[in-house]
Amino acid sequence: MLNQQTLNTLNQLKLFGMAKGFEDRLNNPAHTEISHQEFLGFLVQDEKLYRENKRLQRLLRNAKLKIPAAIEDVDTKTPRGLNKQVLLNLSNIQWVEAHGNVLLCGPAGVGKSFIACALGHLAARAGYTVLYFRAPRLFETLHQSRADGSHLKALAKLSRTQLLIIDDFLLTPLSEPERKDFLEIIEDRYGAGATVITSQCPLKEWHQNIQDPTIADAICDRLFHNASKIELKGDSFRKKQAKP
User: Fold this and answer.
1) Range of the domain at 138
2) CB hemisphere CA count around 13 (13 angstroms)
3) 49, 114 in Cβ contact below 8 A?
4) How far is CA 41 from its chain centroid?
5) For residue range 151-162, what is the model confidence (pLDDT) as tens digits?
């Protein structure tokens, strides 16, 4: 009876990790062999792990990553210009804390989105807020926000995110509103947040595809500073997978 009351109280206090651990350990005969201090210590660890897992689930749900990728699953064996040491450096999450950028370029199907989402998953595991957008959808969202009066609120949400992932940047040259919005995003995030951008457009062509020289200078200067630049090459993984 006392054990059931304790279990009910833990659930009422929303200590669900401790409650689950308490119930599991009561059903395990080995728990009688440990001291009260050790038993309590295990329960505290159960609660800590439960909260960390719930936070990770929430961060990943809010991130809306396109691919459920993990950094451990990134292919470094296939020759495509991905330096193993560069990936190892990015596995150290300090670049997010330092508000660094990662710029991934290369043809379609070489794994840019997979790497970007793997970095997003890595950041979420470390407790950082992450947000993923395909560039066309991002600009469409910002365009709609102008119409309903939530434009500044939308920009503020992007600026607060600790890691912003923009996929498929510069599929087409930017329009004037898109240029201005993108400059606002990069300006707000400069020195305040980390950004990952993927593009089929080579880095050397970004300036001309942004089209406005003044805005392009401002964007490229902020993006390329403190950035890891990865230019991938090779055949599409999708084509290789389709051959069999």
Assistant:
1) 64-242
2) 12
3) no
4) 33
5) 999 999 999 999
